[in-house]
Amino acid sequence: MDHGGMMATAAPAASATGGMDHGAMPTGESNAPYDAQFIDSMIEHHQGAIDMANQALKEASRPELKTLAQNIITAQEAEIKQMQDWRKAWYPDLAATGGMDMDMGDMEVSGDTTVPFDQRFITAMIAHHEGAIAMAKDAGQKAEHSEIKTLAQAIITAQESEITQMQQWQKEWFGQ
């Protein structure tokens, strides 16, 4: 998989629901530093998880999902802050890169109300986490800064654990 592409001024398209459609980052020139592309992509990706988790805090019926959602918000807001600090320190004059050319996974919970919200949230968050894990594995191989590699490994560890938990809940709660 080639995740090196980027676009200097790309902006994600607005979806029909008025939110942002971030299913895949745009492609383009790839002369921006890899670490800057990773940071720009992962900040956007984490914001998608935070948005879905905030929705779960309001709409989930199971307390386990609300706890997971709060944990996602807390962890990913801290990681966003860290990446923003690195971005300012390492690339103070670099314009937004448009990010990495890769599938980000689901960036919003399905609006199909024939399926219970808890089930839709789990399905969306598993796909979303899988996108983050793919990005983090790529960064583990290609990042220049050791801080990015350390963050990438932490993302892999945390999100693989959360996926395992959510898959267990899918089986227990929904027979999937």
Automatic annotation (TrEMBL):
* Listed Gene3D superfamilies: 1.20.1260.10
Which residues does the annotated region (Disordered) include? 1-33
Q: Which Pfam families match?
A: DUF305
List residues of the DUF305 domain: 35-169
Source domain of life is Bacteria
Q: Where is the composition biased (Low complexity)?
A: 1-19
UniProt xrefs under InterPro entries: DUF305_CopM-like, Ferritin-like
Q: PANTHER family annotated for this entry?
A: SLL0788 PROTEIN
Q: What is this protein called?
A: DUF305 domain-containing protein
Species of origin reads Kouleothrix aurantiaca
